[in-house]
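Comment thread on ticket #2218

A.B. wrote:
> Attaching the input chain for the structure job we discussed in standup.
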Amino acid sequence: RNVNIGADASRIERLDTGLLDRSDSRINVSFGTRNQDNLFFNLNSNKENIPVDFAIFRPSDGSDPVIIPEGSYSWDSISMGLRSGEQRKVSMFLGIGSGDYYDGESKNVNTNVEWRPSRQLRISGGYSYRDVDLPGGSFQVRQTDMSVQYVFSSTLSWVNLIQYDNFSEVIGFNSRLHWIPEAGREGFIVFNHNVADPDRNGSFHSTNADLSVKFSYTFRF
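C.D. wrote:
> Ran it. Output below, let me know if you need it in another format.
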């Protein structure tokens, strides 16, 4: 049904020296069907100047971090993906990417599945995986999440999100009740709770929890 071809680029310079901090450019091509399914391809090119050594990955178990040394880097990568139409009760997304990364290599996979059994209820789950191999060390980052959203009416909705990643070894839970009685007025009740396993022994402990209530009112003159 349609073919889109586009390109975008950005360049950021340091204020103190006027030299390049980082830049990126991308060429993207996507194909869409009449069923709202989409297939896309991206070609990415990046440059970055690192003024001092920095740790790109710090293991939560306290072992040595993975360091990217000071210097100038440029790398290219390619990614592609498929997204099915959201008009279906079950829709999905799958994306993969591979290429250079600083002075090493990186591969990644991203997936998401969404189920809408009714107009009020929406359930989705996602998983992402990234494998980075650098001269200073290798690491894998995994993240998984699940979201449940229920719309009671045009003025009241409830969204719940739980997320975990092996980078921080934290499981985070967020629950938000959103009420909009009329235009210009809205209220929130938000609950957050995090549990962590920093020593990676399979035992998670509560690190923080909070409950907040917010209401906003817009005055018109």
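A.B. wrote:
> Thanks. Noting for the ticket: The two ends are 48 Å apart (CA to CA).
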